[in-house]
Design goal:
Largest sheet of chain A: none
Number of strands of chain A: 0
Oligomer: homotrimer
Number of helices of chain A: 9
Structural class of chain A: mainly alpha
Radius of gyration of chain A: 18 Å
Shape of chain A: globular
Helix content of chain A: over 70%
Chain lengths: 224, 224, 224
């Protein structure tokens, strides 16, 4: 199996860390939206497990890992408890949370791509599902919180591009038959570092050209 | 099969009642949102069948019951017609609708948990899917209506907790091998009564502790 | 296989055209919402492929066609590039886009119904999934853009009804065993023409009767 990139226990520990930090981001948004403790737990679970759940439904891996691995389910509940009691402290460590979130992004785009390929999908489809694994939970989080997904907004630092780069590296490695723990780790680190750089330098993706139509200007005015 | 808790025809009749009352709640929200008759039908269907559809996709029961049992599909259309012509009268009976909705909540968390366990999921995963069966349709309803899911909001009476209790009772009964029509019925009734009490006494779940950060206070002010 | 209604290459070309025009509608909404280029691509993909993806998950056709046919995935990216560079010109051709969108609606309700029936669903369920194939992508588009789905709003010209008519014609043809390229084409054209007429004459579906309760009037006032 390709997707045992690392030893199973290392892989599992990495997965749980990724799930935990994604859950923190969901729980923090829930607190900001004034949700109750169950709302916090739901948003933590959805953010942490939503991307992998989507991937598993698409590739036909049912029941999804989110429902067969108890650790996957319980980890977001720890994040919920932590944020419930200590959210001002957690908010103050927002920078640390962002760094861990970047690590989760890098990790999930790589493991997602690999798992999709293991289930027989093509290279492009595998990379797409790797991206979906990494960013899907955050999109579901924002939809449930009734906000425009921050993934889609131009006024947020690049988030999809690092995951696209990481996923693309994995399928290139698969294509040239050089997938192993080292190259996979390289893809994780590249996505991770790109995301850190994007946050540090506030890199943003361009919006559509020629946005000078009357319609767009009006909307920009109201958006400000 | 475990999930034949009651005789098939009794089980089916109970399912249809649950679907009908959930559909009423979807149709009423659609009228309030000023949707047309097709929007009312869509919201009725989604509210009534969404939770079970999610469960069936997760456990791999495809095509889902919502698409194989004609009664499941047609019942929400009856609710649509009723609300379309008589919605002021239905609104006036909002209290009765709430009581039936509580019955649907109790019923679906029990049948959802049992069906998930029948399909081989673990106890925790089964209880989670029982909860998702009971509350999933309402979440989808609110997402489609572009509102913050009332499940997540702290200013609504407890809704998830009764379903959690009902689902937890079922997995305990399974664990100790005492599942039968009587114990299952007990779980349904417990969830139902807890929800009625929550509505009567306006029980609410707590929000995060220490919500005294500047951010939270501003948000509370604007929320009022 | 029933769902080879036309020769495979004709069918595939029609599918790609439908995907392309749906993607254009998603990309245009993304530009209006001020999304960046990745947001435009995501909304184009979701609008074009979302309905078919939902259908394939329901009928158990995994991995879905959207992830196995490279053309399906790449076509929305062409639409993204086109809208990114030329969106004022594309907006100016909104009428042409609407005509193509109507063609996509007619095509997808027919192919969706046929594929669902091929996978063993009943006639009513097949017609429902045909409708979902045709309109599902647009609903997902609006949910991700954090807007009330235009499908559900009464102040939009009929959109669901033409697709319902097209899907219903297909199941009637199946029922009476007269499915072939000609009758299927007739269903496509009927749905297409009905949608064009609905746009031309601004046909709308009725809202609930007796909307004279205090609640409704207040809401109408604020909606204006």
């Amino acid at each position: 199996m390709l997707h045992e990139l690392f030893t199973p226990s290392v892989q599992h520990a990495l997965d749980l860390i990724g799930i935990f930090v994604f859950a923190i981001s969901g729980a923090l948004l829930a607190v900001r939206k004034n949700f109750d403790v169950f709302g916090i737990a739901v948003l933590a679970e959805v953010t942490a497990l939503g991307g992998g759940l989507f991937r598993d439904l698409i590739i036909g891996a049912v029941p999804p890992a989110a429902f067969t691995d108890l650790g996957y389910f319980i980890t977001p509940l720890f994040a919920t408890v932590l944020v419930f009691f200590l959210h001002p402290e957690v908010e103050r460590t927002q920078h640390a949370v962002n760094v861990f979130d970047a690590a989760g992004l890098g990790l999930f785009c790589v493991t997602g791509t690999t798992k999709a390929y293991d289930y027989g999908l093509g290279l492009t489809a595998s990379a797409t599902l790797g991206l979906a694994t990494a960013v899907g939970g955050g999109v579901l989080r924002d939809v449930l919180a009734n906000e425009v997904p921050s993934l889609l907004r131009w006024d947020r630092d690049l988030y999809a591009v690092p995951a696209i780069v990481g996923s693309a590296m994995v399928v290139l490695f698969i294509r040239f038959d050089v997938v192993n723990a080292f190259t996979s780790g390289l893809a994780v680190v590249t996505a991770f570092v790109l995301r850190l750089l994007a946050m540090h330098f506030h890199w943003r993706a361009p919006r559509a050209w020629n946005r000078k139509s009357a319609r767009s200007e009006t909307e920009e005015a109201t958006a400000q």
